Amino acid sequence: MNQKESNTLHLLRSFENFTRKGGGVSMREYQLAPARAILESVQRNLGLDFVVIMPRQAGKDELLAQLTAYLMLVMYRKDRGIVAVNPTYNPQTIGSMLKLENRLESNLLTQRRWKQRSDFLRMIGACRTAFFSRDG
Q1: Which of 85, 91, 105, 107 is the most buried (most CB within 10 A)?
Q2: How many domains does the chain have?
Q3: Structural domain of residue 127, as residue ranges?
Q4: Which pTM was predicted?
């Protein structure tokens, strides 16, 4: 294994490494706790539902964008889908799409690996994230 592959595996080993070392974003412990629970559910195929409640400006959107980018990369070889639903199209759904795009482009492991498939679909390999809003 060469040095580049070793570094990539290190960054993928944990969500925290992916965000901090890959993307330069240090997540706070109150963001990492729900991320770990969600990742455990996904990795163990538990199918659990989660509601993440945080005060305004606490980094909920950042958490969701980073977690989505990480999951898309980890599952890029699998035909998997992530569905992101927001209460409104403008500004929330648009904001979510833009934040994910920014995180995908700013992380060393995902930049130039993702693509926009349609107005509402972003992909890395076979894994895709679809964006919807409650208001249509």
Answers
A1: 107
A2: 1
A3: 3-133
A4: 0.90
